[in-house]
Amino acid sequence: MEKSPDFKVILEQQSSGNNESSSTVNAPQQQSLIPSPDQICNLLLVMNDREQKLSELATQQQKLILWRVQFVRLERDWNDIKIMINNFEAKLASNLTLAISLTDAEKFHRDHEDIKPFVDRICERIDTLQRKTEKLSTLISNNDASSGPSELINTLVSGRQKVQLQFEDRLRLINAQIIFYKSSEQVSQMLDTLEREYRTIEDIHEKLKSYTDDEIQKILADRLEQLDENKHSFLRACTVARQKSDLFHKYALRNAANLIKHEAYLKPLEQKIKNVSTILKNKEDTVLNAWHHRKKIIDEYLQYISFKRNTDKVFVWIDEHDECFVSKLEALDINDDGYMDFVRALKEKKTMVRKLVERADVLVERSHSFAPLIKDTCNRLDSGFNNFFQKIMRINNKEEIDKEAGRKSDSSLEEKLEQQELNEGKRKAAKQRELIFNELLNTERAYVDSLSKCIQYYLGEMRQHVEEVPEFLRNKESILFLNIEEIQNFHKNLFLKDLERYEDSPEDVGHCFVTWAKQFHIFYVEYCKNNESCIKVLTQYRGPYFETIQHKYQIDTINSYLIKPVQRITKYELLLQRLMSCCEESKGEVKEGYDLMCSVPKKANDAMHLSYLEELEAGLTKEALGDVLLQNTFQIWDSKQIIKKGKERHVFLFETSIVIAKILKPVARGAVRYIYKYKLMTAEIFDVKEHLEAGEPCKFALYTGRPMSSHTADLRVTLKVMNK
C-alpha cells in the first residue's frame, strides 16, 4: 500500500534523527549518549505535529472514501431512474397509435393522464437525486478535483428535460388530435346544415308579395348581411380546421422522429388527415357554390324590386297627369312655364322608360332568375307609357315637344338610376376590387404559362438531349430548377382553378391563399431557401447553351424564368395589400392571406440559416428541434465565463428550446457556418429581465435552471441583439 506524503516525511525525519544520534555516539567528541531535554522536547513536538497531520489526512481520506461511496450510491440511484425512464419511453412508444375518431382521441388522453403520476415520480426522484448530488458536489469540490458529481448533475438535468419534453410533446399530439377531430366534426356539421339551408327551394316572390317595396328591400338587406356573416364564419371555420390538421401532422412528425419504423405510424395518419381534409374541402366548395346561388337569387330579386320601383314612379307620374290635366294642357301657351315644365318631365320620363326597357332586355338575356316578372313589368311599362305619350301627341305637335324638351333635358338620368341602387363610395370600392382581382387572375395565368415554358423548353432540352448539355451543367437540373415542377403543378391544377371561383367575390380571395397555406410554405420555402445555389451555378457558367435554347424557341432568358417564383410571392404581397385598402377590415381573409405571403420569405430565410447549423449534440436532430420561430445574431455574455466578455453568437428560437451557435465567417465564396454550442430549454427558463442597462433597449437576460438551485449549471445568459 502506498504511503501518504506526510507519513513519508515523518519516517524520513525519524530516520535522520537516528542517524544523527548514531553519529553522535560514535563521534570521539561526543560528551554523552543521552539527548538533552531540549532535543527530546523538540522531537516530541515534531512527532505530535506529524501525528496531528497524519490524523487529519486519515480523516480527510476517510471523508473522501465516504463521499465516493455516496457517489457510487447516487450513480446506482441514477441507474434505477434510467430504468424507469426506459420503461416510460417504451410505454410512450407502445401508445403511439392513430386515433380513428374523437372517442379514440379522448380515450388516449385519459390513458396519457394515467402516465402523469409515473412521470411525476421520475421527476421527483431526479430532483431529489440532483439535490443530493449538488450537496455532495459542494463538499467534494473543495477537496477533490473529480468532475464526476458535476457530470452526473448535467446528466440529471438532461434526463429530466428529456422526460418532460417527451411527455409534453405527446400531450401536445393528443390535444392536437382531439382538436383536429372536434373541429372537423363541428365544421362538417355546420357545412351540412348550411348546405341544406341554401339548397332549400324558396319562392321569394310569393313569400314577400304581401310586403311593400321598402319593406322588401329592408328584409332582403338584412338577409344579405346575415348571409355575408355566415359566409365569413364558415370560411374562417374551414381555415381553422385546416390549421388544426397541420398542427396535428406537425406534432405527429415530432413524436415519430425517434421511432425505428415511423412510416408504419405516419402513413395511415397522413392518409387519415388527407381524407378528412378532402371531405371538408369538397363540402366547403359545395356550400360556397350554394351560398353564391342563394345570394344571386336575393341580389336579382332586389334588382327586380329596383326595376319595379322605377316603373311604378313612371305610372305614378302618368296617373298624376290624368285626363283632367291633359285637357288643361290644351289651353296652355307653348311658352308658358307650366307647359315647359310638363314637356321637360315628359322627355325625362320617355328617356327613363327607354333606359328601363334596355336594362330589362339585358337582364332577360342574362337568364335572370326573375326574367318573367321583369318582362311582364317591362311590357306593362312600355304599353302604358306609349298610350299616354300618343294621347299627348294627339293634342300637341310632336316636333314642338321634342324641340322644347331638348333644350333642358337631363343627360345624367342613367347615373341617377345607378346611384339609387348603390352608394357611390361602395361602387368605387367594388370596382377597385374587381380591377385588382382581374390583375391577380391575369398575372396568375401568365405566371403559370411562364413556368410551363421554362419546364418545357429549358428543362425539357436538358433531359431529352443529354449529350448536348455542357459538362459543367450535367446532372445539375435539381440545383438549377429546384422544385419548379411541383410549383407549376400546384398553381396550374389547384391554385389557379380555385382562384377563378372568386371572380364574383374578390373580397374573399384571401381565403383562397389561406386554404393553400401549407402548399405555399412547402414549395416556396424550399425554392427560396435554395435559390442562392441556383444563382451561383448560373453565374459560374458562361457558355452559350441557354442562349441557344432561348433563340431556338424565341422565349425569355432562363434567369428571368427562374427568378419568377421569388418575384411572384412579392407580387402577391402587393396585390393583397392593395386589396385590403378597398375591403372592409372585419370581413374576408385578405389580411390573413397577406400575412401568409409575408411569412413565406421569412420562413425561407429562417430555413436557410438553419441549414447552416452544424455539429449538433448526440441524439439531437434538426427535425426534432422543429420550426424556427425567430433567429438573429446576438452578443452574448455567459455567467459561467470567467472573463466577462461578450461573444458574437447566432441564436435560434424554437418552440421548446433556444439554440446558441458559434458563427464561422465564410471562406472565399463559401456560405456562413454555425457551430452548435449549447441549448436552453424554454421550459427551464424561469425569468426574463429586460432593460438591464440605461440606453440599451435591446439587451436582456434569461435565467435558466431552478430558481432555488445553487448548482453551477444554472446560469444567466445576457443577450444583446446585433441587427435591429
Automatic annotation (TrEMBL):
PROSITE patterns: DH_2
Gene Ontology CC, one term: extrinsic component of membrane
One BP annotation, GO: axon guidance
Entry-linked CDD domains: RhoGEF (cd00160)
Cytoplasm keyword on record: no
Coiled-coil features, chain-numbered ranges: 184-211
Domain of life per record: Eukaryota
The protein's name: DH domain-containing protein
Source species: Rotaria socialis
